[in-house]
Amino acid sequence: MEHDNKLDNSKRNVFTDVDSVARAYKGDEEKPLGCKTFTKQKSLHRNTQCDLCGKSFANSSNLTKHKRIHSGEKPFSCEVCGKSFIMNSHLARHERIHTEEKPYHCEICGKSFIRNSILITHIRIHTGEKPCFCEVCGKYFFSDSNLTRHKKLHTGKRPFYCEVCGKSYCNNSELRRHKNVHTGEKRFYCEICGKSFFDHFNLVVHIRSHTGERAYRCEICGKSFITNSHLKRHKRTHTAGKSFDYRDT
Asked: Which stretches make up the C2H2-type domain (predicted)?
């Protein structure tokens, strides 16, 4: 009986090599505890590893989605504009642009957004949180995209050129905004007063003059401002003791 107990306990050892398991239990009909699980995990790892880049995934479904990055396959197409996507979730997110659905709401100001990630970045305007840090100059930013755009100032690279005047910019959005100066096109209209603007940002700032929204708050004195640039200018009155004349609209 004592010998049998020792044998039973030995079968509970954890084996890290498939061949070791086979040698230890060759000819024994009873399989060791954990042997089946080990073989399954080994097979799972082998079947969910990308043979192109070696990256591993939790399941075959995620591996299939990942492989589309290498193949360029985009099986999910938008019926409105024809744009294609790797995953169905990306298509669903894109379709909100056409439907104007904005399911993510800011509990502070009530503003709505297409994606949760945009809402998270927006909330930082209210909280003042700037988690993205520039290692070159130490400046902080609300989002990774703002940090990436800022870093181009250090490199000096301005790869986006205006074909009309030759002026260059750090990113394509600034170039598009600049081109409106040449065309005179003001595509962004205020629904309240009808005033038009070259870009969406200036329209948003203008609308705040109607709503009275002042999203940028000074943590020193509590005064609020319509734009971040006005807040920065105001902060100098605390640090340098100088006053600046400017309009908040």
From this structure: 48-75, 76-103, 104-131, 132-159, 160-187, 188-215, 216-243
Name which of 171, 168, 166 is nearest 151 in CA terms. Answer: 171
pLDDT digits (tens, 9 = 90+) for 184-228: 777 788 888 988 887 777 888 888 888 888 878 888 898 888 888
Q: Are residues 85 and 115 in the same domain?
A: no
Nearest to 204 by CA among 190, 192, 193: 190
Would you say residue 229 lies in a domain? Answer: no
Give start and end residues of each alpha helix (H) in the chain: 2-10, 18-24, 35-47, 60-71, 88-99, 116-127, 144-155, 172-183, 200-211, 228-239
| Angle in degrees, CA 169, 151, 167, rounded to 5 | 10
10: CB partners within 8 A, 6+ apart: none
Give whole-number Cα distances, 165 to 155, 175, 177, 212, 225, in Å.
Answer: 23, 11, 14, 38, 35
